[in-house]
Amino acid sequence: MRALFSLKMIGLHVFTILLVVIMVSLGFWQLRRHDERVTFNDAVRARSLTAPLDPSALLALDPDVANLEWFTLQASGQYLPNEDLLVVNVSQDGQAGVDPVSALQLDDGRILLVNRGFIPLAQAVPAAPSGQVTVVGRVRTTDVRQRGELNDAREGELREIQRIDLVRLQAQLPGEVLPIYVDLLASDPPEAEVLSRIAAPALTLGPHLAYTVQWFVFSLCAVAAWGFIVRRALASVRRAVPQAPTA
Question: Of 70, 121, 126, 170, which one is least surrounded by beta carbons within 10 A?
Answer without folding.
Answer: 121
